[in-house]
UniProtKB/TrEMBL annotation:
Free-text function comment from the UniProt entry: Involved in the gluconeogenesis. Catalyzes stereospecifically the conversion of dihydroxyacetone phosphate (DHAP) to D-glyceraldehyde-3-phosphate (G3P).
Domain of life: Bacteria
Keyword Lipid biosynthesis: no
Gene source species: Sphingosinicella xenopeptidilytica
Name used for this protein in its record: Triosephosphate isomerase
Gene: tpiA
Main location per the UniProt record: cytoplasm
A Gene Ontology molecular function term of the record: triose-phosphate isomerase activity
Pathway note: Carbohydrate degradation; glycolysis; D-glyceraldehyde 3-phosphate from glycerone phosphate: step 1/1; Carbohydrate metabolism; erythritol degradation; Carbohydrate biosynthesis; gluconeogenesis
Amino acid sequence: MEKPMLVAGNWKMNGLKAALVEVEAIARAADSAPSRVEVAIAPPFTLLALARGAAAGTRLQLGGQDCHANPSGAHTGCIAAPMLADLGCDFVIVGHSERRTDNGETDAVVKLKATAAIVAGLRAIICVGETEAERDAARHLDVVAAQIDGSLPDADPASVVIAYEPVWAIGTGRTPLAGDVDEMHNAIRARLVARYGEDGRRILILYGGSVKPSNAAELFAVPEVGGALVGGASLKAADFLPIIAAA
Ligand SMILES: O=C[C@H](O)COP(=O)(O)O
């Protein structure tokens, strides 16, 4: 595969200081990857500064798993996009289905967060994806189209990345067929081009949901798949490195 790719790990609420050895190993792999392959991880906020140090001088990109829509203020427990930028982060994930479910985040909120991220100089990885019931009802394309339309910022599309994560595939070991991923990524591409014109063709569309060393190559071979957002298999370099290599 000779296309630009982004392989990003989302550590979710996992990782203590002992996990910094994994960051160091992933950073070495990032440096060994071809220049068209970007490698990134989003550790928990508690590890970000330490991870920044562990990855200093390498090509490993670091990011947050969420940010607030405001740049500062009285929001106990929240992290603002300028704080992530100040720490040397490159990106932030917004609109993950776990936040949409656990924290009631709507497309409108996700759009505000993505805008805040880009204004702060970060890339925004915007997550979308249908539930199993929505796919069973053949509503998946409409659901994701509505999420895309509602979540995309009006800001510079060069800083936008989309992650298509079917909710039913997250942490379950189940993945869509390559043909289903192809259908969805083509539909997302059409939506991006409708919104941003030719700039929409350059936006990376990641696949996420039970990506593993054993299925990464098949998923990456889908033409409009521009990388992966990896959860469980990004926690250990032994699992994550073969996924990077498959890109
Ligand atoms: O953000 C990552 C996704 O939710 C995928 O998680 P998973 O690879 O553990 O299924």
